[in-house]
Amino acid sequence: MEVILKEDVQNLGFKDDIVTVKDGYGRNFLIPRGMAVIASESAKKVLAENLRQRAHKLAQIKKDAEDFAQKLDGVSLTITVKTSAQGTIFGSVNNIMIAEKLEEKGYSVDRKKISVPGNIKEVGSYVAKIALHKEVSVEIPFEVVSESAPVAEAAEQEVAATQE
Question: What is the pTM assigned to this prediction?
Fold first, then answer.
């Protein structure tokens, strides 16, 4: 079944894209929620006319996304989390945490546009991908560190001092 997306749907497509989906997904999920319409010939003609009329506006939106991507280029984040003694995170790092850290740095990004690689449950370095536009995305490196690391180091130094 071909549908025309009325809004961005993660892992499927962007607004005004014509995509092929399984019948049940289209009829039972996308269409009832107003996320898509059936791609009939008349709907495709209306879409083509709307896209032609909005071409200039879409070019400006893409340019704005590219400018914002240049601002984000070179930004790196450090996310401090509570961990066990082995370095395992209590919970996991997700796109909401990354959006909050970007907000602290002065960059407002919708958390739905941020994707992180799988479940992050260990301390380390990772890369998040931010889809600013269907043709513009930027990768933000971030490091997950333990908030108890300085405390653990201080405890090790105290133990070393008492052994001397």
Answer: 0.62
